[in-house]
Amino acid sequence: MRLLQNIHNFDVATFQRCHNLKSYEKLVQISRWVSKTADGPLYIIAAIPMAIYGYLEFLPWVFAAFILERSSYFILKNFFRRNRPPQAIPDFESVIIPSDRFSFPSGHTSAAFLMAVLMSSLYPELYYLLLPWACTVGVSRVMLGVHFPTDILAGATLGTSCGIIVLNLRVIV
User: Fold this and answer.
1) Is it true that the peptide bond before 105 is cis, omega within 30 degrees of 0?
2) Domain range for residue 132?
3) To bridge 155 with a disulfide, which of 8, 109, 136, 140 should be the other Cys (CB 3.0-4.6 Å)?
4) How far is CA 60 from CA 64, 66, 133, 139, in A?
5) Which residues are catalytic?
6) What CA–CA distance (Å, rounded) separates 11 from 9?
7) What would the pLDDT profile of 40-82 be if each residue is shown by its tens digit?
8) Catalytic activity, per the record (predicted)?
9) Segment holding 30, helix H or strand E
10) For residue 173, what pLDDT band results from cuts at 50, 70 and 90?
């Protein structure tokens, strides 16, 4: 229990340092845009290049990966039931209204890392664009005040893991 309290204290301190940066207002503006790039509908649009460039057989695997990731995300979110920063930090208000009640893990970050893993397997040359994008999505969620840093780490781990699992299953099958 002490370990969890220490992690929470670290999370709150790191979170508050991010929100006390001199460039905070500018970072919030950028974070709004970056966060929107990881909204669900854009992942559907990402399927268009796959279809155009002949990766139709890969689309069911992408769908399976998102089912695995979203299911795991939902189970973890409802198991841990970690309060978001506005509920955990007195007098703090987030910049945006989150889509659900709990913060652990970050769903935006998880989905972004899943997409980065899957798309990098098809387009390896995009890896150096997709990985920083996924990391930036995670940071944006902290800057918008809806997640703690460990929520981001958990989301990145979840998305990456689900992507790797599905890619390995694809090779076996």
Assistant:
1) yes
2) 32-93+100-172
3) 109
4) 6, 10, 24, 30
5) 108, 147
6) 5
7) 888 888 778 777 877 778 888 889 999 999 999 999 999 999 9
8) di-trans,octa-cis-undecaprenyl diphosphate + H2O = di-trans,octa-cis-undecaprenyl phosphate + phosphate + H(+)
9) helix 24-36
10) low
